[in-house]
């Protein structure tokens, strides 16, 4: 290579290295400026929200809110000391969270919030809100705090895609009401089924009304004045991995109460209370209950149905893989005399009972008063499956008491193994009255009172017309 060519190559190499170094320096500067600008903006934003949270009367315009924002009740003035009334702070937090789709309302851990009876309406709310409950919410114990005409403590109404989740506690502190007379509670219970308003006692700790695609998970509900968790006129309900508890002698403290609701799933839940662990009322259809522990309590019940002669309809109910211990009944259907309607398509399977008074029961003469009026009218019960029900009983293995005018039809029992475990009660043999169906071995003890299934003019598809919308 000649001298001129070598000199030219050296000059080109130098130029290339210089330019590359220069470009790298420019790129580094741009990255530094961009990063500092983002940090600046983030700091400004953080400062803005912190400034807003110092003032408890936070007002946010809906147009400025973004999906998924968080609303902590502490930022709205809640004290969380268990004594100060935090009702207004919860209402204010809800008012702002409600404006945002997929918003998160936070009840933080480490605090106890005293909240009075409140209705959280969702009629103008964004969809898919979440209540993150990690702290404890306490109900008031004075009758003055409840006022007149209030039947529930916390009501969630007309919400779509709403979820309650967390590890928190809803404490109804109901012991002050349990000392009242049993008759008062029965009066309130009757009014609940007939949808009459009552001002005698607070009814439900938590009630969902008219919602769809609802989820309750993770939380604990305890010591409700009466019903712990109620779903009324809801479509699409998922309850799982929750705990409900109150003493076994607390009156009318149903665990989960369903009424006029459909597409309901309840699973992996522990229920201990003074009444039905789960009660399924009129208007319910397509309900699945599985992997639930129940006890103490009155068992899992369809009913009571048809009080005061009203029409009651329940269909497509599945209860499986359930454990019941120290309960009054296991799986039960209970209806009042004088009622109309139907119960159809019910399946109880893989039920484990331990020290249950009566594991299998149908009672079409249900009466929780000292006396009840006799009537020939009755709800039609048919197509009920009992499969793989095992364990111990303390009073009677099976009690099927059906109506003379509407016998129970197509009751199928298979793989029933129930053994007595004396517990101070007088033991009774299986009992059937106007009950028709089939037995598939093994069935222990022997049930010779179930009559062979047959067609009957006393029941049929025409009964379903009473339940047509």
From TrEMBL:
The keyword Nucleus does not apply. One of its GO terms (biological process) is carbohydrate metabolic process. Belongs to the glycosyl hydrolase 28 family. PANTHER family: PTHR31375. The keyword Protein transport does not apply. This is Polygalacturonase. GO terms for molecular function: polygalacturonase activity. The active site is at 298. Keywords: Cell wall, Cell wall biogenesis/degradation, Glycosidase, Hydrolase, Membrane, Secreted, Transmembrane, Transmembrane helix. SUPFAM superfamilies: Pectin lyase-like.
């Amino acid at each position: 290579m000649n001298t001129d060519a070598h000199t030219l190559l050296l000059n080109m190499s130098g130029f290339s290295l210089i330019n590359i170094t220069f470009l790298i320096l420019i790129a580094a500067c741009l990255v530094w400026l961009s990063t500092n600008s983002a940090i600046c903006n983030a700091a400004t934003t953080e400062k803005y929200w912190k400034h807003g949270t110092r003032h408890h009367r936070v007002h946010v315009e809906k147009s400025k809110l973004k999906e998924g924002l968080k609303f902590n009740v502490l930022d709205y003035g809640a004290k969380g000391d268990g004594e100060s009334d935090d009702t207004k702070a919860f209402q204010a937090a809800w008012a702002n969270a409600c404006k945002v789709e997929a918003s998160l309302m936070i009840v933080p851990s480490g605090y106890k919030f005293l909240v009075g009876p409140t209705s959280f309406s969702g009629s103008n709310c964004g969809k898919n809100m979440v209540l993150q409950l990690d702290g404890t919410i306490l109900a008031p114990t004075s009758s003055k705090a409840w006022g007149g005409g209030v039947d529930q403590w916390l009501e969630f109404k007309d919400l779509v895609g709403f979820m309650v989740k967390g590890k928190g506690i809803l404490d109804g502190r109901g012991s002050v009401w349990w000392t009242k007379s049993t008759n008062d509670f029965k009066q309130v219970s009757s009014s609940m089924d007939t949808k009459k308003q009552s001002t005698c006692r607070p009814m439900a700790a938590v009630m969902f009304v008219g919602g769809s695609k609802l989820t309750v998970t993770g939380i604990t509900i305890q010591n409700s004045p009466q019903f712990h968790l109620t779903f009324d006129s809801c479509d699409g309900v998922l309850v799982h991995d929750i705990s409900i508890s109150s003493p076994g002698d607390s009156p009318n403290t149903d665990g989960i109460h369903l009424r006029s609701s459909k597409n309901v799933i309840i699973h992996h839940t522990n229920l201990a209370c003074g009444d039905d662990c789960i009660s399924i009322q009129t208007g319910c259809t397509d309900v699945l209950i599985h992997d639930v522990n129940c006890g103490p309590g009155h068992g899992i019940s369809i009913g009571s149905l048809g009080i005061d002669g009203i029409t009651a309809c329940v269909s497509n109910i599945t209860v499986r893989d359930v454990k019941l211990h120290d309960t009054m009944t296991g799986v039960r259907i209970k209806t009042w005399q004088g009622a109309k309607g139907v119960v159809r398509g019910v399946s109880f399977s893989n039920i484990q009972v331990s020290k249950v008074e009566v594991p299998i029961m149908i009672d079409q003469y249900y009466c929780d008063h000292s006396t009840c009026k006799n009537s020939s009218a009755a709800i039609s019960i048919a197509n009920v499956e009992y499969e793989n029900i095992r364990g111990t009983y303390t009073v009677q293995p099976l009690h099927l008491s059906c109506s003379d005018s509407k016998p129970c039809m197509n009751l199928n029992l298979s793989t029933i193994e129930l053994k007595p475990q004396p517990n101070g009660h007088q033991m009774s043999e299986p009992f059937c009255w106007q009950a028709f169906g089939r037995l598939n071995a093994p069935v222990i003890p022997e049930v010779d009172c179930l009559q062979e299934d047959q067609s009957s003019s006393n029941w049929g598809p025409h009964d379903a017309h009473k339940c047509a919308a």
